[in-house]
Predict the 3D structure of the following.
Amino acid sequence: MDLLPIGQFARLSRLSVKQLRHYAELGLLTPAHVDEDSGYRYYHPSQARQALSIGLLRSLDVPLAVIGQVLSGTAGALGHVRDDLEAELQRRRRTLAALERVMEHGLPAARVVEVEVPSMLVAVTAEQAAGDLDVGRATSACVERLLAAWAVGERQRAPELIGLFPVELSEPCTVEVALVTGFPLPGTSPRVLPGGRFAQATHLGPYEQITLTSHALLSWCAERGHPAAGPVREVYVSDPAVTAPDQLITHVQIPLEEHS
């Protein structure tokens, strides 16, 4: 069967000429023939199935690098894409729930109080977060490690956990979680968590909506000229294992600096 010029093949495969050129540069769909004198590209009709497959996978938000793996027959190549889409779907659901809360109750205006917090001996573990969308995973990883270390000693009292977060979470950052303890825990770093005067707002509800209360707390600090110093603390009062998500109590705290 005769070869097809790139324009005709583009119409056949429902791709643009620009896309075909780009896919050729990436090695995803190489022309069957390139004229040495004119540089014109030609494709065999049998390549249409591959071209259409690329178009289908791109419509499913599959990255081009992964498409190359799929076309080469790499087993499980689409697994990470599915996981990423599932994570994005969950994030969208959390965002929708937060938006509905704002629509129902208005912009966050949590009651803020000033509290004195004593210094505490804590065990700390850290996890790198890729950005604000990854903070939940990083926090959970820290909590899991701390609880595993805590359980080794068969402690009688419930663990007291405190999340430590940068004020800005839009960029890659380090998330830390501290467990209040008077003794070292394996696999953790001992530290004295400074005390002092803090602005505090209490969040009632799911952890993924704490940002709404943090917004109200930051607004309170800004209105009074307090710099947004970090780390922002989340003191987890409730045990999520026995408490419904909408009944979880968390104290959000920001350290206050004296005016110069």
